[in-house]
Amino acid sequence: MRRGCAGRRMMAEPIRIHYTVTGDDFTQAGTASADLKSRLRTMGFPADVIRKVTISLYEGEINLVIHAGGGEIEVTVSGDRIKLVLSDSGPGIEDIELAKREGWSSAPDEIRSLGFGAGMGIPNMIKYSDSFDIQSTPGVGTVVTMEINC
Amino acid sequence: MTIKEVRSVLHAELLTPELELSTQVHAACGADMMSDVLAYVKDQAVLVTGLNNPQVVRTADMMDMVCICLVRGKIPDETFLNLASERGIVVLSSHMTMFTACGLLYEAGLRGAKNDG
Ligand SMILES: Nc1ncnc2c1ncn2[C@@H]1O[C@H](COP(=O)(O)OP(=O)(O)OP(=O)(O)O)[C@@H](O)[C@H]1O
Ligand SMILES: [Mg+2]
Q1: Most CB atoms closer than 10 Å: which of A36, A76, A141, B111?
Q2: How much is the pTM?
Q3: Is residue A88 within 8 angstroms of chain B, CB to CB?
Q4: Res. A48 pLDDT band, cuts 50 70 90
């Protein structure tokens, strides 16, 4: 019998959590990630899993705010994995391979002065998640899908 | 070392007097870009930074950091301090530069993440 890392009984049914991220309030960026973090803690997930999930989601959430004018986050928590889907109807990404590169950023100076725009967000998401996928169409939007196993 | 010792090494002002200073600090990170902070996981760490917007607190919170020390005499606003206090993150402010603050903490025995080079 396999036991999920947050306890088998509790995870009989996957839990779905939805967040709407607004693009106009930078000071609120990160509230979804902070909320998920405390929920996962209550559900009993191990600290290292929680950290991988929250860093991955936080980078994605910040990108929704600074690059896409907001978007939606869909979280699915199962006993053995946590899936994060971030979608937006922002400008999209012209060259995805370039966007994945460490240090590449299109962020303007005023975003940099706030501490973002190092071009490390997508590399961090790839590093902390067990599976990472990004689909983007310029002028239509971007969908980032990540899974973290436990 | 404890947060209290970090404070004395950096001659820093304590901006969250209600929080505990006996917490142990095992590592430090000096950065002004938040993704650089998120790149390496450290336990019980102090964040040394010149940035004073609330995202600094959110970033430190994601990493379970226990203390933020602002350098070059920066003083954060109410939102920053309330958020830090709510998350239990001690906030210090030192007049030192980033270089000097990090150098003194290193000399006092703090290290970066295990895998940061
Ligand atoms: N949701 C998105 N919509 C449109 N463009 C995006 C989106 N996410 C990322 N990008 C583009 O990909 C680039 C790289 O993203 P990444 O998160 O790696 O770096 P950054 O956000 O610029 O800086 P950092 O994350 O280090 O603060 C961004 O500068 C931006 O051009
Ligand atoms: Mg980013």
Answers
A1: A36
A2: 0.94
A3: no
A4: very high
